Structures are given as C-alpha cells and as structure tokens.
Batch of 4 targets.
Target 1
Amino acid sequence: GTTKICALIMDEADGAVLETRSANNAFLPSVHPWERKQDPECIFGIVRELVSELIKKYQSFRCIGVTGQMHGILYVDSSGRAVSPLYTWQDLSASLIRENRESYAGYLAKFSSGLIAPGYGLATCFFHLSVKEAPPGAVKLCTIGDYIAMRLCASSLPVMHTTNAGGMGFFDLLRSSFDVNTLETIGIDPFLLPRTVSGGEVLGETTGGIPVCISIGDNQASFLGSVRDSSGSILINIGTGSQISLVSSVPVSRGALEARPFFEDQFLLVGASLCGGRAYAILEEFFQGVLKMAGSPGGHSLYDVMDALAEEISEEPLIVNTLFAGTREEPSLRGSIQNISENNFTPAYLITGFLNGMVQELYSLYLPVREGGKPGYKQLVGAGNGIRKSKPLKRVLSRKFDLPLEIPVHCEEAAYGAALFALVCTGYFKSISDAQNLIHYEESDDFRKRGLR
C-alpha cells in the first residue's frame, strides 16, 4: 500500500485470518516537489522478511497472493532488478507544463480515449522519456506488485495482470491489451511493457516450493476481498485516498467513474478521491498545530476526541469541500469551507463538515449511476482503516447512501482479496464468486439499529 506493507495468513477452509503483520513503507526524499518516490528494493526486503517470519511460524502454505499500488511504476533491467525508484500513484511529474503551456498529461489526453492523468504509469513514463530521465539499462516497467511477485519466485521478467495494466493508461478494455499503435505514436516503446494476462496465473515458486501468483491491482483486490455479492454491492474504501467501486458488465465510464478491468469478463466502475482519508488527517494536524500554538506539547493522537465531538448538525452546517489535492483531471483544484457564521465556526462543526465533505465527494461520483436508473444495490460495504476507526464516518456514509453499511470481519481487505485470487489461480476455488463466499461481515451497523430496513 501507499503508507504500509501488510502480510496476512488466511485459512482457506473457512476464510479466517490467522495472523496479520505490517510495516511502514519505504519513502524516499526528492529534490523535486512534484515527485512521490519509494524504494522498491527496501520494499522487497520488508516483504521478504514478513513472508519468511510467517513461513517459519506456520510452515505449511498452499500459495502466495500479491497486490499493490496499481498506477505507480518502476523500471527493471534484464535481470529483473530495479534500476529506478518506485514513482507512486501520487507522483505529479505529468502535471508539469510543457513548452506550449499544456501539461504532459494534457498532451497525452489528445491521444487517449480513456483517462490518462498524472500518477498513471504511462503518463509518468512519458514525462521521463520527454525530459530524458528514463534510467539507463531499463528494459521493462512494471508496478510494485509485479516486482514483488517476480522477486519472490526469482524470475527475471515481470508479468502484469490486466487489473494493473488498466491503471497505466492507454489500455484498451475491449481488447484487454495496450494500445500499441498509439504508444508508438507518442514515443513510448511498447517493448517496455511486460506481458499482460487477464486470468489467473502462477508465476513460479519460492525457494521453499510455495506457488507465487500474479499480482493484481489493489482496487480490484480490495473489492474482491470485501464484497460477497459483487452485483448488489457498492464498495467504499477510505484510506490515504478514497474510492467508490461497483461492478459493471460493460466497460462504459459514467461521469467521473472510470471503467477498469475486473475478473471473469466484468469491469469495475471506480471513482477516486486523491485526498480521501488524508482530509481527516489534515484536520487532525491543524488541531495539533493549534495545541502547539497554545503552548501544549501535543503529539498524542486526536482522532478519538474528534470522533467524539462529531455532531449530527441540521442547522447552519459548515460546507466543506475536501478537494485539498485536486482531482486527477484537475490537480490544481483546491478545497474550501463555506457557510461560515458567527455561531458555527467551532471545532465540532468543522469536524462534522470534514466528514460530510469526504462522503459527499464520493457520493457525487455515484450520482451519474443513480440518476441513470434504479441500480438495485442492496448494501454498502465499507473497507479501509478510515472507515473502521471512525463511528461517525460510518454513520454519515450509511445515511448519505441510504443503504446498510457492512464491514468485513477481517481487516486488510486488499491483502485478503489477493489471497482469495491466489486460491482461484491454484484451483482451490473454481471461480471468483466461490472464493467470495468466505467473506463474512460484522453483526451490527447503525442503519439496522435505526430500523430503516
């Protein structure tokens, strides 16, 4: 993930998570403020250590699944070793302005029928090639998940699943392949791209003989690991960023919802907020700053206090727009706080306004689907620590979408989805839907308590 690396062990018989371990991710400093980089070799070292510890403790394993950031890229040499940092999905290189007053991503948009935005792998690659910053010795590019899976089974060539490839840009959803002709037109050598596959595949084995399966996109892994009923559920994931995802049988984008590859000839319609849960963290940092200004040492987390102050406000609410990091299409957009009066500019109103703003941003992405006809969704599934740790956020989500909110009993939903997919790859389950039957939800939610269903 963006901020941490997680490994979990799942019992394939009943879906129970036996143990979860995690570590902080490996960020790198940069002299350029638009770059967001991490250290792929350090990431692999952390993964290898986590896996080794768990193998030593539990000994017997059926398979290993992998997932990771789906937009970011790194470059590898002919031996499969990284020759660059990981440029994450937050990298803004492609938002820089070219000589003719348009951004690199804006220029690429002229050639793409789909979304191509700053942070997308091929937009970042195009920037590197344009300014001659592509690393010498690079023969392939890949996602961090592709890299980890390749290194775990000591392979020298990355392989990319379509759920990752769809986040690179210039990917043809109908043909399930990259648009090679257009890539050649804009000056990206298609040879840089790994072999892509749309189904399940075992890449190889660890030195101990454990099958390692192809890495899948973190958005799709999170959906797979959270949602038991794909066609009847909406998934909201709030972590560093936030996303709304729902399954579609056709790859047709709606409004700002982007169609992405899913599994078994289906697609995900996905809307992403770049700030997401980070918006609440920004507010917590603001309150920390106020304490420091007042002479308090501060330093301890304020999230529990903030959640306790969150109120159900009906009169003169603060209207908070949480686009603090803009959008993929318009990175320069910024947030705002409106409807301020002499009575409502208080911490409680501000906290509630932030929560409502975070949810409203996601709900606005969903409106084109709702207005296109009665979707028939039966439940809202919540994933990510941003939701799990905040009772008022759960309440705001359920009421805004007017659906019962279900929380999986297991945490680390993307890692759980990677494990389910690995069990399909190795034949333990015949289908994705069979694997999803292992998912169970917590017993209670605010919606049912209020007697609305």
Target 2
Amino acid sequence: MLRAEAKTQVGALELDVDLAIEPGRCLALVGPSGAGKTSVLRIVAGLLAPATGRVECAGEVWLDTSAGVNVAPELRRCGYVFQDYALFPHMNAWRNVAYALRDLARAERRTRAQSLLDQFGIGSLADAYPGNLSGGERQRVALARALALRPSALLLDEPLSALDVRTRAQATRELAGVLRDSGVPTLLVTHDFAEAALLGDHVGVIDHGELVQLGTAAELAANPQSAFVADFTGAVVLTGSAAAGEDGLTRVELDGGGSVQSTDSAAGRVAVSIYPWEISLEPPGHIATGSARNHLSAEVVSLTTIGNRVRVGLVSPHPLTAEITTAALDALALQPGTRVTATWKASATRLIGA
C-alpha cells in the first residue's frame, strides 16, 4: 500500500492531496498543466519536501513532517520514470538499467539488466545507445531501469507523451501489461483522460492543487461532479438556466440562445454535459421520428478523422462536438460550412450545478 498526504505551497499553487493505492493497482492523476500532478510524484519520491505531510509505502514511513522524518530519495524504493525518460546518453541500454543496481557486483548487474531488457522485448538492443533507440524503445529501457531494484512503488510522469501517435498505441498496451504484472502500487500522472482511463484502475482529477474527484474512469464519465471534470472527461459542456419543464423533464435555456431538455432534476444556473458520441447529426429540416428531445441548428466548422470515426466540430452558436461514423459523414456529405441539426436524448443530457 502507498499512502501520501501533503499540504504545501508550490509557487502560486496551494497543493492539498490525500491518496492511497493498493499493491498491484494504478492510480492515474489527470489534470491540466500546472495543476500539481508532477509535484505529487516529487513529494512521494522525496524530491520535494512539503510544508506538512506523510508518505508511507509497504509499511515504511518515508516522510512524516510531524515526526521530523524525511528519508532521502535514493533510500526510498521508488521506481521513477521521468517524462523524457532521463536516460544517460553516454551509456548503452544495459548500463542504463544497471545504473540502478550499483550495489551489486558487475556480473550480477549485467545479468539482471539483460533479464529485464529481455522481459521488455529489447534484449537484442542491450548494447545500443539511447540516441539510436526509438521513442518506444527508450520508454522500455526507462521502465526496465525503474523496475531493476524491485521497487515498493512505481511513479510515472507522462510516460507516453514523448512518443509519436503511431508508437503510442502499442506502447500503451505494453505499459498496461507492465503495470498489471508489477504487483506494486503505481502512481501515474498525465494530462490525457483517455490515457488515464486505459492505464488507471482509478482516476483522480486534479485542478489547482486539489483532487476534485476520484473514481473509476466510467464513474467519472457517467457522473462528473463539476463542469471541469465533465469537460476533462471529453464531454461537451454548455451553460444555462434550468427550470421544471413538460413531462417531468427539466428545461434549460442556454446562454446565447436555444434550449435543451434533461431527465435530471435541477433549478437555477447549471452546466449541461453531453458526450460527442451521444450526439447525432441530421440534415436541416429533417423531421425527427425517434425519442431524441434535443435539436439544435448548427454549422460544421471542422472534421477530424480518428480511425473509422469522425469528430465533427460545430457551432450552434454554442461550441459542440459530435462523433459519427465515416459512413454517416459520407451520407450527410459534410464539409466546413454545412448546416446540420445536432440531436440527442434528454437522458444523455447531464446537469451539473454551476
């Protein structure tokens, strides 16, 4: 078990966190740049001393400001993977891994390093230098080094951000397997909710130094507790004023014009949350025959293809994003400037107190 709680000032940021991670589980902290994610990692690793706090891992107290305990970073059994991997450019792959094993005899270091590189599928690159490795290969060397000492906890700082799009998908699958098999608590930070959802057993959303919501990715997406969380999980967020409507629904008069209906109960100022894949597009003037209650006239402003799906940027005048199939794109003959009607159900319209 890894437990960490800390309160401190980091520049203009007031950091206040309290978290616990079970062995073999991964907590992914997600939030914008400057939210305090990396500062949490640095506190656990002993690279940043908070004003008050306590860090305990595998029964060992690494930090307790009330008792004057602050174990040096090199004595904390943390495997730390930095954002840029921080490999030594003048050392080949096996020596980078073996650097963490300086207390062992040279032959033992080489054997352990080679074994880890083999485990990550890059044993044949043991003598290669970082400058001659791809981004994915450097990532695997960094992970091997982090696991070399059989750490009590694994800390990952934006582990996929240095990879190109093509490499990232495979590296994500490999990393998920590493975390699953490591058997130690893992704390991972990222600015990408989709990445956090793939890698984390639980996801914590951090903003302005505060952990604003914690749960599984599905729980956060289904029940965001703030407009910030909804926006960060990929939802479209609109604002307006809610009041009781017809048929037991809530009607929201949107800022800037138009209205939508929701099965949620609310009154007064609210944020409206809808996920892009819940929005369908129809030609202007199309007579709706389904159960969708919400219809907003919109103009296409952008088209982004992602696999067999297309993200359609809209303005209604509210900014909207719909996610449709390529078949639907072709059927509607969409292009920037095309007028459409954005449609979705009242049950897909989540209301959050503003």
Target 3
Amino acid sequence: MDAREAYAYALLRIVPDAARGEAVNAGIVFYCRRDQFLEIRWELPIAALAVVAPEIELDPLRANLAALQRIAAGDRDAGPVAAQDQSERFHWLVAPSSTLVQPGPVHTGLTAEPAATLTHLFSELVLP
C-alpha cells in the first residue's frame, strides 16, 4: 500500500517590473488535500531584490506576503477568502491577482509527509 498523497504547489514570485520579466522567488503555497494541509512559507529575498529592484519598498511586500499566509491558514481576521475551505483558498492563492506578488504555475507531486516536502521545496526553490 502506497501512503503517499498528491500535493500541489506554486511559487510566490516578486515581480518588480512586469515589462522586464524579472522575478525573484519569495515563497511557496503548498496544498495536500487528503491531509488537509495548506500552508504558505515565505522569506523576503532582500539581497536579490537589491540587485533587480533597489528602489522597491519592503514593508508593503512583507504585508502582502503575511496577508497571503494568514489567508492560507484560515485566519478569521484575514477576510472572507480565509473563511472558505482549503481547496477554495488554495485556488484563490494561486490565481493571478497582483502585479507585484505573483504565483507561478502549479506543480504536483506525491508525498508521505506534507510538512517535510514543503520544507524541502522551500529550501530548494526559495531560500538562497
């Protein structure tokens, strides 16, 4: 018997100037429906942003990413989207809705431990 479950994830990218097409990975949205696991992890890539967008304001980025994280967690104070079920929240989180913080394409895989898989993906794809 295979104990692995399907998961889906998308990178959260900071796109300082859409016309230039440059993006810096800042977080990941990870969802495993069977295990009822939805989480966002993020870290502001300050050094990378200093190279591609030295004028960018960091506080609004932090606020945006923190708000997305609260929505993923289902925080009651995070607005009506946070009150939806996990599947609806995931689909909302990975839909394009901002010009500055954009989700990348959704990828899928199999995991026996969603939290460990998220940690691995985060360290490989987001952390410097």
Target 4
Amino acid sequence: MEAVLNTVIVPAAVAEPPQSCITVIIPTTATTQRRASLLNAIRSAGDQSGAVTTVLVIVNGQKFDPLLFDLLLSREDIKVEALPVADLPSALLAGRVLVDTEFFCFLDDDDEILPNGLAIRLRALAEHPEVAFVATNGYYRSNGKDELVIGNINRVATDPVLAMTDNCWLTSCGGLYRTSLVDAESFASVPRFLEWTYLGLKLASTRRVIFLDRATFRVHDSQDSLSKSADYTAGSIVAVKAALELSLPPKVARRLRMRLAEAHHDIAGDYLNSNELRSAWAHHLASLAQPGGLKYLSFSRRLVPFWPRSW
C-alpha cells in the first residue's frame, strides 16, 4: 500500500525507473583532508544504475587544496563551480540555481549514495508526479558499523512536520527534489546550523512529500563536522528562531519553542562553566520564557555567586 504525505512507503522491490537526469550537488571545501571522501562521494553519485546523473561540485571558500581543485577541473565527467566565501547555505543555493535537469539532490563530501539509491527515489517521484520531493532512510557509519539514521518511522508517517521537531528525517544526502516544484527561492535564507531541519519544516509544510523507509545513502562519522563545533548550540538558537518565522502549525511552533528553551539552557550551562555569569543569566532567563522552560528553574541557584556548582 502506498500513500502520499503521511504514510511511509516500503517498496518490496526496486523497479527500473525512467531514465531521467538528476543533478547531484556536492558542496565541499575541497581540502586535502577531504580528498579521499570527496572522490568517493563523486564516484557514488556517478555510478548509479537506473538514473542518469550530472555531478555538480561546489567548491566552498578559499581553503581548498590547489592540486585537488585542479584535478576536479580536469575531469570531464563533473561540473565545478567555486564560491569565494565558505558558507554552506550559500553553496546549497548556488547549486540549486545551476540545476538544469528534471530532478536534483545533495550529497555531503564525506558521504555516499548507495547503489540504486537514486533509482529508488526516482521511482517514487515517477509514480507520484504531484509530489515535490522524496526523503529516504539511510545508514550512519561509526566505528565500522552501520545504523539506520531514521528511527521514528511511525511518527514521520503520521505527521512529518511535527516529527521533524524530534528527529530530522530530511538528511542532506537522503532527498530527491522535483526541479519544477522546488525552486531556488526555497533555499534562500537558510540558517547556517540545523539547515536540513529548517528546510524539512519549510518544504514539508508547503509541499507534498513522501518518505521511503529504504536505505539509499551512507553518512560517515566526521570529527570536524559543524554539528560537533563549539558554535553549534549557539547557532541552533538562530536556526530555531528562523524556523519559527515559517507558517507552521501551532503544535509544531510550540515544540520548536521547547527546543529553544533547551538550547538556551545548554548555553547557560556553558557560560556558567566559564564563569561568565552575566551571559549565563541572560540565557537562563531566556530558557524560562519558553514553553517547558520552568523545568530549568532550579538551575537559578547555580547562578548565584558562591553557590555550590556541584549541586
């Protein structure tokens, strides 16, 4: 059984989809450290049965390896564009602007699309021409082991927009978009952090989407990813505030404000640990102002000078 928008699709087998062309957009800093993973990502995007692909590499910023950059430019099987400033949202937008194929998708430079991964997605969009994009499950590899990325399948099936506030089911490398229904404007004003949570909320609340509970990609653990940087929590506050400016159902907006309270609380703790009490108080009070924030009220005692911080 198949349904659109609020039901998970679990295909029994992969039929051969139409030979429609897909632009695979790969943003990358093209540094020496990324050479092997980038070339593997390009290989996985180009080696797709059941789908004709155009690989578009967006070299993001000025820290690229000159030898790797020259290698990319010398390849006739890919397209290369360069941006002067490293900024992932700008790279996503630049890539979408350059799309001239019927479908497009994204792929991080340290991840890969599994064999037949695009064929699975393409089949779903071919069977549902009214659908703007498809999102799929995939694997997260850490310490040599694969685990499925999306675990709350039933919640995604019941209410994909609300489910996005619990777990981002739209991964950078797990979607396929119909160019005619997902325009470049969709990628404007994307925040620097939680970009796929923001895009998932924006697209799923305004367009028809289907989710396939099939693994079509593999995400590789990366120690230098932005999600592990010191600025991530602070950036998530900006991202959640940007998402709250979207036209979202009240229950979704409330859930986002609860996440905002959590983020402010986490930052308050960071400032406390560095003895910056003024900033800690500011974020603590901001956390209390959000739905569910009163559960952090007892944290106030730890912000009082000379109060035992191990309490």
